[in-house]
Amino acid sequence: MKGKGHLSQWNDDRGFGFITPVNGDKPVFLHIKAMANRSRRPTVGELLSYELAQDKQGRWQALNAMSTNDKQQLRQQNKRNKQYQRQRGTAKYSLLFLLLLALASWQHWLPKYTPVWYLALSVISYISYALDKRAAQQDRWRISESTLQLQALLGGWPGALLAQQRLRHKSVKTAFRRVFWVMLLLNLAALFALYHYRHALPALLY
């Protein structure tokens, strides 16, 4: 059961106090160990949300108590954790794609220079995103979005994906993201066509 109330009493030396619920119920015991954020001490008068539970003696106590600021910090921390997981996933899938290209090239399913081309364009795309973000922060000349999209279309999208996640650049703008995914799909379509019609290409490419 959840509750909400103001911290009406607090003994900082002993690390406990009481919360007076906003609904008028009896004060609820709060120990410092029951605070969700133990990096700071609660202050008398602040509004806390908590989970209501009973101890072994049947007395009501607050658990996982947190203030509005604590909730915001927790949401921010969860957001950072999710972003970190996305970054790891993006890096992993980009690397897996390049490894698959290397395997396809080794098996002569694709021209031998294909993985080198994608790797080079990915590095160029990543650097372009980094330079564009720095230019935006310093209010200097920017790299055009059409250039970034062209790099993705030509095969630099693995590096662009990694840059969007790690550098947090061009990762929110909806219009840009839509065009970017179109460029990515067009590139994959071209790659499939290259594989499908590989026998029509000069043997020198293999």
Give the helices and strands, then pairings.
Elements: E1 2-11, E2 16-21, E3 28-31, E4 47-54, E5 60-66, H1 68-106, H2 114-137, H3 145-166, H4 174-196
Antiparallel strand pairs: 1-2, 1-4, 2-3, 4-5
Transmembrane segments: 90-109, 115-132, 175-197
Pfam families: CSD (PF00313), DUF1294 (PF06961)
Domain CSD: 2-67
Low-pLDDT stretches are none
Number of helices: 4
Instruction: Note the run of SSEs as H and E.
Output: EEEEEHHHH
Strand content: 15-25%
Average pLDDT for all residues = 86
Report the end-to-end length measured between terminal Cα atoms: 67 Å
Strands across the major sheet, in which order? 3-2-1-4-5
Structural class by SSE content: alpha+beta
Sketch the major β-sheet: 5 strands, antiparallel
